[in-house]
Amino acid sequence: MRRGNLIPNLKLTLPPPDEVSLAKFLTQSGTFMDGNLLVNRDGVRIVSQTEVEAPPPIKPTDNQLSLADIDTIKVIGKGNGGIVQLVQHKWTGQFFALKVIQMNIEESYRRQIAQELKINQSAQCSYVVVCYQSFYDNGAISIILEYMDGGSLLDFLKKVKTVPEPYLAAICKQVLKGLLYLHHEKHVIHRDLKPSNLLINHIGEVKITDFGVSAILASTSGQANTFVGTYNYMSPERIVGGKYGYKSDIWSLGLVLLECATGQFPYSPPEQGEGWGSFYELMETIVEEPPPSAPSDQFSPQFCSFISACVQKEPEARLSANQLMAHPFITMYEDLDVDLSSYFTSVGSPLATL
């Protein structure tokens, strides 16, 4: 037989593909793993047994997450046009928070969501919740975020009722570092700072989340005049519809800290035992009445001074995040070596137990 000729009538057959077996090892992310063989877009390599058992955790810069590679565990939050689910990555076992937002909503909300994606994907800071990836599919936006297993500061506050000053100073220091990053690195006003947008975890970290109503300020003046955000924590200058800047977040921070310290929202309705008749009534009180203060007979002079520096009616009179970092209230407890990790876990995490 001459080279290159095939035997006449020879039939070559291949075994039928085992679709179930293939699906077990290959996902939409393009990674195939069987035993110690790993194949992905970077090529083929043999990994050690320890690597097979514990793949390296995915980093935000890896850009390799796929919705097909995650399993849903449970719903952990609802609001702002969507839900938040706890999910687990099939390969690494990592937990993430998956925010799913349906797009059959008003155009104003769509713009807010687009803004959130833009800010989230560009933010890289230890005091801001990490965004790993986002997808648009079947009329929904899915955002894969860092999972904070302690829930929100609001969840925590419901359990402890009040937060002692040393812990409050340690929490505040991390929030200020997050605001410093947003204000000076990203040129962003958060505009919706409140206890439910401050997330905690079992290792004692506090991070800012939810930039759904944040604004990137294109101008160097650092001013904005749109009316969005949570009314309760809104600064007076925003309520009256005037221009506002980064210090509107400082007002909100002051109210959050005062609420954590006293166990109740700083503005009490006119009649005790009754709620506010309307949010207009609360807005009028914030604008017209003197700002709230920390009771001097219950708290240190440093804390009272810090709250006063945050909730000045005139924005120009408030201290900036950078100035507040040097305030005596932030520095006075540093020698105590405050352990937020033990404090957060001592009351039990609402989300850590799956």
From TrEMBL:
Keywords: ATP-binding, Kinase, Nucleotide-binding, Serine/threonine-protein kinase, Transferase
Residues annotated as domain Protein kinase: 70-330
Pfam name, any one: Pkinase
SUPFAM superfamilies: Protein kinase-like (PK-like) (SSF56112)
Gene Ontology cellular-component terms listed: cytoplasm
EC number: 2.7.12.2
Catalytic activity line of the entry: L-seryl-[protein] + ATP = O-phospho-L-seryl-[protein] + ADP + H(+); L-threonyl-[protein] + ATP = O-phospho-L-threonyl-[protein] + ADP + H(+); L-tyrosyl-[protein] + ATP = O-phospho-L-tyrosyl-[protein] + ADP + H(+)
Signal peptide coordinates: none
GO biological process: response to other organism
Gene3D superfamilies according to UniProt: Phosphorylase Kinase, domain 1, Transferase(Phosphotransferase) domain 1
MF GO annotations: ATP binding; MAP kinase kinase activity; protein serine/threonine kinase activity
InterPro entries on file: Kinase-like_dom_sf (IPR011009), Prot_kinase_dom (IPR000719), Protein_kinase_ATP_BS (IPR017441), Ser-Thr/Tyr_kinase_cat_dom (IPR001245), Ser/Thr_kinase_AS (IPR008271)
Enzyme kind, highest EC tier: transferase
Binding site for ATP: 99
Family: Belongs to the protein kinase superfamily. STE Ser/Thr protein kinase family. MAP kinase kinase subfamily.
Name of the protein in question: mitogen-activated protein kinase kinase
